[in-house]
Predict the 3D structure of the following.
Amino acid sequence: MCIVEVIKQRRRNFIGEFIHSFDHANMLHHAASNITNIKNIIREIYNNRNMYGIEEEAEASSGDAEQAYQLLERRRRYLEEDDVVGYVDDTETLAKKLIQGTPQRDVISIIGMGGLGKSTLAKKVYNNSNVKNHFRCQAWVYVSQEYKIRELLLSILKCLIPISEEIYEMPDEELKRTLCENLKGKRYLLVMDDIWKTQVWDEIKDSFPNELTGSRILITSRIKEVAMYASKNDPHFLRLLNENESWELFCKKMFRGESCPSNLEELGKQIVRCCKGLPLSIIVLGGILALKEKSYFTWSKWLCRDNLIQDKTQCLDILGLSYIDLPRYLRSCFLNVGVFPEDYEISARQLTKLGIAEGFIQGTCNREEEDVAEDYLEELIDRSLIQVASRRSDGGVKTCRIHDLLRDFCIKEGAQQKFLVVHSNPKHSLTNKPRRVSILCETSQCLSLDHWDPSCARSLLLFNSQLNFDTNHWRWIYKGFKLIRALYLKKLVSSIPKQLGKLIHLRYLMIDGDKYDRLNAIPASICKLPFLQTIDIKFCVINWLPKDIWRMKQLRYLKISKGIRLPVPRITMYESTLSNLQVLSRLVVTSQTVSLVTKCRFPNWVQNSAATF
Ligand SMILES: Nc1ncnc2c1ncn2[C@@H]1O[C@H](COP(=O)(O)OP(=O)(O)OP(=O)(O)O)[C@@H](O)[C@H]1O
Ligand SMILES: [Mg+2]
């Protein structure tokens, strides 16, 4: 453009040149400032590349079969471990409190700072055989700061009875009554883990019948007042681990059942002392050192780092250290976990697909992106930055969680780097130009693009399931988030507009509706999205996929509604081959589908769950 303008200028005659010389100077100035801007952008891209380790990903992920085997071994070892240290007296005391005492419904609480092991202790008590034998039914619910009463009620009910469609569709008040009826006459134990507000008790207590059956509610909280509000009983204050317990926990994490070499013991104990008995810090530190060389020299370097930190602030800063110690290819994957709500059970598949869509995870010549993603997840688990919530039958991670303190760290660090913004309080203002946006609260403030610029966002996750998603929200997405690669909506919509086809960078689309929602069409424009890899839509009632689905050469994962049918492909082989498709779920298998498979229309197809004939 600039060159064309310069040539035009030269063609002008002298007077014209004179008249236009101001223009010319202006244009040159404009060009110079454009060049400076471009240089700045390039510098920023270069810095980001370094910061997020983009170039390293390919090198670092060049795992071979040997590496994969070692990972599997590590995974197995992990499964065999029983990592809980100490708490023998605490378990006994709490079990007694639950089993003995008043026949009325009673509330017992465990109090302590974050990362101290309240949930771990509660789980140990919950699984104690005497406790299990004593109660007729047991239920566990994670409450967290941003709880939704409906989700709490459903989670508790899920522990007691299968959730039918009818229950799912009940309004909250009826759910409360159903829960109460299911607990009536029974001796129940309910754990409410991680309560932050007294209000939750007010909202839910009437659902727990107060009879003379000896039922108990076990609460864990960081805040004593919250526990005292539900019961006047003295709370159980959890203590920090003593030196021996701290050392035992560190060794379990570090040496996985083997003993510590004698030349490292004294130094190791000094390092562990820096954690001041806080289990979360100990396991995170153990997770870091387990991956380092077990030598006096390496460990003594760490002792110096820890001492420095101890001087400045408290032991919780060790969590920050674990981030600094991450290889660059893992940093973005870890920070990105911050986009999920507190205490959320994260699907490993969703996490890895998001990472792939964002480009944090890349395949290598002999490993698929999904395999590399799984390795990364295991590495974060090994470093204790992520906890496993459930595993698949083959040992792989099915769901995981992140500890609140680590999540807080991701959000803080992510906001500082403009890596992500988690919007959980409608009163807080929004940061401009974030790279990733997670909205956990009401969206009306974010909806106005006048005061907020999300144009650089590469992913948008909306977790507010109360939200009534309408055409305004869609307009807001395709106008404001033009660069997004990943879109996750917790609330299903009644329709998806054809403008979805404008989001040309989209790689991941997941709409996680509930049974109230009924989406009855997917626009044909979806097939124009050239990079789309994942389409995952829950509770959708369409029967046919769009005709041009065969054009979607990048599609790897397709899961829509039960009983979906493939359209008849066009004539040419190329046009009718989904060459990257690996998972095609809930498909109606007809003679036509069988013929498509035999004709190798999905050469990489590995899974079709819930197929119907
Ligand atoms: N006694 C223990 N033995 C082994 N690991 C422990 C122990 N106590 C805590 N941990 C580990 O430390 C981490 C933090 O523990 P936990 O989640 O129970 O803390 P918490 O007190 O519930 O924290 P929060 O207040 O944030 O909910 C977990 O990964 C847990 O496995
Ligand atoms: Mg907890």
